[in-house]
From TrEMBL, chains A, B:
It comes from Digitaria exilis. InterPro entries: Gfo/Idh/MocA-like_OxRdtase_N, GFO_IDH_MocA-like_dom, NAD(P)-bd_dom_sf. Residues 17-137 form the Gfo/Idh/MocA-like oxidoreductase N-terminal domain. Gene3D superfamilies: Dihydrodipicolinate Reductase, domain 2 (3.30.360.10), NAD(P)-binding Rossmann-like Domain (3.40.50.720). Residues 151-274 form the GFO/IDH/MocA-like oxidoreductase domain. This is Gfo/Idh/MocA-like oxidoreductase N-terminal domain-containing protein. Belongs to the Gfo/Idh/MocA family. GO terms for molecular function: nucleotide binding.
Length: 378, 378
């Protein structure tokens, strides 16, 4: 017997998710564009510390000044009844306060990464979202690129790829002297995790992704990998991770002081996967990776093959728009259909944050190994 | 004023270097082919533990049984007055004895890697070579590929590449069950360093190469990276390195238990270099690497460029033949022109071995950081 045809989508499914942008950071411009690319999402309001800043953001980003409300405070944006969800690109140090406040007012929360300065802060945010029954998602755009799903299929292929053994991620971009003096990401009270939070976040997320989100049991910062500024904010660091009882080892290094690199290399028992523009693909329409499956040496070991296969994955929408699309879909499910928030995204964020906490703790303890509690809260 | 034309090469420069192959390991077949590819080199003799094995090697590798002498012991090969230089692919545990013996009999020494089980053994070999005035070189073929020189030019380009900041190397190949039971590389008395010696050697060499052969000050094995067999031989491991007073951090992982990977990634302040077939190029005639110079983000950080440039470096001779060619050139300089042995190769071997020693010591001490003495002997 065939399945009956699905019922026609109810009218309210076409009602877009109305976003409020909470803070006018540079990254908000990218997200404003992304929201506008998604049919099921719209920008309803922008909130900044002054109304003029919010207005300027609206005009500079080609938004409709008649339709998009400008709020002169974060509170005003959160009080806006025409906002379903907030996108919050605030400095990390402000996340706990404002993301929790947004949830308490019934707003769904799309929160820029790093999600919080520490797991305890993120727990408070997640508890607020949970209590309010709103969706939480962090702003790790790469999770939503179809390339990421394609790479997951490769790694899951036991025949061609086998079991994961070694993971390495290198994330860096060289910041300007002005950044080193003035950017929020070098200020202890605003983004206390520095490069660890800003880009190490991706290394940790990618490593967790590669192992199916199993938390490592031990994390250790790499001796000599840590550079801090005078205020103690991390400008470069690295760490290794182990999973007790497994043969997996992961390493990463991240830096504000080296040229652009966005590498993830995963070596399995049968194959190898490499990507070098993990966080921001070189181009919007297509992103590549390279894969070697069951390679073998030539006679006399004078060569080997097959050579790496270059895989290109096309996408109509950029990854940040796909993120907005997925978030909006989950929000509609809660708002319109009485669905429950999707637990996967907060869980992944929480695990990423737990590992960042451990790396930070190891840095603070002279690269001592740190055990990660494998509790229910993880 | 123009330089005068060089004098004609004396006749004896055309007299080839006569190699004796000391031991019939699988790798010797590759080197036998390489020696035959080099005009200035010839195979004069093969020595094995039995004459029949030596004869079989000669016939199986297409050598001229009438011209190439078969010796039934290593001693006999070393006593052969028609041998200028030995290529020794013996188990590492036998290097100190036989390489030193070869030097003592005035033979130049091309020694397979790892050069020795420990730096003390290598020091004995190098002292013997020094006392006898013979050339020493280890068998790290990749050093002689023109790609390696080309990559060096990239890294040395202060404008396009800047200063080295992060280095990662991943070296692995998945061995068979038979290898895990029977290969000399898993036997403590034959190749006690296991994967660390066999492939970690390349990681360490590549890292040293990337920093201009400056010894790291501290080396630490990575917690969780070490797998040993029942006899205590390392099957997989990893380490990080630091150079006091610099911002360079290097990591590597190597494994007999993961699929083929031969990666080196070097990130500088202005550029990035990546190679994924470092040790054995996919093909003999051409080898590639990828380089990014002074990359920049697109507007709104929705992409970046320029994309990595793929560089292909052609070579007429495979890298192992280039190694033989360079070694033979140095031997001729000593043999025919009263030149002194080239000190660069023993020095690089010694530094590589010093770092391997430190990694091994760290492994044995539960991943404790190990300081490397920066003495004259290094």
């Amino acid at each position: 017997m065939e399945d009956p045809p699905p019922p026609p989508e109810p009218e309210h499914h076409h009602r877009p998710v109305r976003f409020g942008i909470l803070g006018c950071a540079a990254i908000a411009r990218k997200l404003a564009r992304a929201i506008r690319l998604v049919p099921g999402a719209t920008i309803a309001a922008v909130g900044s510390r002054s109304e003029s800043k919010a207005r300027r953001f609206i005009s500079e980003n080609g938004l409709d000044g008649a339709a998009v409300r400008a709020h002169g405070s974060y509170e005003a944006l959160l009080d806006d009844p025409g906002v379903d969800a907030v996108y919050a690109p605030l400095p990390t140090g402000l996340h706990a306060r404002w993301a929790a406040a947004a949830a308490a007012r019934g707003k769904h929360v799309l929160l820029e990464k790093p999600a919080a300065p520490c797991a305890a802060d993120l727990d408070a945010i997640l508890a607020a979202c949970d209590a309010a029954g709103v969706q939480f998602m962090d702003g790790t755009m790469l999770m939503h690129h179809p390339r990421t799903h394609e790479m997951r299929n490769i790694i899951a292929d036991k025949k061609a790829f086998g079991d994961v053994r070694m993971i390495n991620s290198v994330l860096s971009f060289r910041v300007s002297d002005d950044f080193l003096q003035n950017d929020i990401r070098v200020k202890p009270e605003l983004d206390g995790l520095g490069a660890l939070g800003d880009i190490g976040w991706y290394c940790v997320r990618a490593i967790l992704w590669a192992v199916g989100y199993e938390l490592p049991t031990t994390v250790a910062a790499l001796p000599g990998s840590v550079t801090k500024n005078d205020a103690g904010v991390v400008l470069a660091c690295g760490a290794s991770m182990r999973w007790a009882g497994s043969k997996v080892v992961a390493t990463f290094t991240c830096s504000f002081l080296a040229s652009l690199a966005m590498d993830l290399t995963v070596v399995g028992t049968n194959g190898t996967l490499r990507v070098t523009d993990l966080v921001i693909p070189l181009e919007e329409r297509s992103a590549g990776f390279s894969v070697v499956a069951t390679p073998a040496m030539a006679e006399l070991a004078v060569g080997w093959g097959p050579p790496p296969a270059e895989v290109a994955v096309a996408t109509d929408l950029p990854q940040e728009a796909l993120m907005v699309q997925e978030f909006a879909r989950l929000v509609r499910s809660v708002r319109d259909d009485g669905g429950r928030p999707e637990g996967k995204w907060p869980a992944i964020a929480r695990k990423t944050q737990a590992v960042l906490d451990a790396v930070k703790a190891s840095i603070d303890k002279g690269c001592e190994p740190i055990e990660i509690m494998q509790g229910l809260n993880n």
